[in-house]
Amino acid sequence: MEKGINYLEWKEDHQDILKTFPGKKLFLMYSGGKDSSLCMEFMLRAANEFGFCFEAHAGALPVHRYTEEEKNRLGDYWAKRGIRVVWHNIGMTDETLAASQNPCVPCQKARKTVLNEILANSVKDWTNLVLIVSFSLWDIVGYSMEHLLVNLYGYPEDTGEGHQRFVETAQRFYPLLKLKEGYTVFRPLIKFNGPDIVEFVEREAIPILSIPCRFREYRPKRMLEHYYEKMGLRFDYDRVLQFATKSLNLPDISTYASLDKEEYLRKIF
């Protein structure tokens, strides 16, 4: 079983994509977590080699995670590496999140709203835009299990929202999406297992957020990760994709490629 993460191997696997980035508007979603920190590291190395630039944007929600001290600590590190993190105030309190049945739902919705506002105000040529997001292999395995338990094993009357949720999460199985208006969604880490990401970030001494989210147990994939860790599991992307396609009826990539940006970015992304 192959383990570990190597930048040179990653670069080799993605060089055809990376070669297209010079002159593009690259927009990386940074959270301060382990996944997006690895993504920043690899994209910085690639930017120097392939001759492109990118922006790093972070939505500071939930508020308790993003203290001024934390933002300064992480921001200073990346500024020294040559990339400035733009921190965005989402305009929602943790008290509002806590009052929800599932705090993750309004949190994600608020982040998505701010993202769309930023894009609407800054993107002049949509064919030039590349959105970079840091979903990992463990994320999509979690989405598979969530769909299996809620939509396939659950009572039919309880699966309405679950099926819509799968439409949203299923598009994250694809490393690269070319959307209707010409913009691109790139997921550089989709083939990496969680422990390998942690090992790389720790080995390279890349700082991450030190304050855990107190709402994290509301996310099914986080609860499932505890099981993967306890059992020492690792997964293979090709096998996961094959299973999801054949057994879970994963929507074809064309399902998303034909959506208008208003539909995709506001309801799916």
Task: Summarize this structure as a short list of keywords or feature phrases.
six-stranded mixed sheet, 269 residues, 12 helices, alpha/beta, Rossmann fold
Based on secondary structure, the structural category is alpha/beta
**Which sheet architecture does the biggest sheet show?**
6 strands, mixed
Q: Any idea what the shape is? A: globular
Count of distinct strands: 6
The helix count comes to 12
N- to C-terminal separation? 32 Å
CATH class: Alpha Beta
Q: What share of residues is helical?
A: 40-55%
Number of domain units: 1
Taking all Cα atoms into account, the compactness measure Rg is 18 Å
| CATH superfamily grouping | HUPs
Q: Going across the biggest sheet, name each strand in turn.
A: 3-2-1-4-6-5
Description of the structure:
The protein has 269 residues and is α/β, with parallel strands linked by helices. Helices cover 52% and strands 9% of the residues. The protein has helices at 7-18, 34-50, 68-81, 94-98, 104-122, 137-152, 160-170, 194-203, 220-231, 237-247, 254-257, 261-268; strands spanning 25-29, 54-59, 85-88, 129-132, 176-178, 184-186. Strands 3-2-1-4-6-5 form a 6-stranded mixed sheet, sandwiched between helices. The chain is globular and about 50 Å long. The two termini are 32 Å apart.
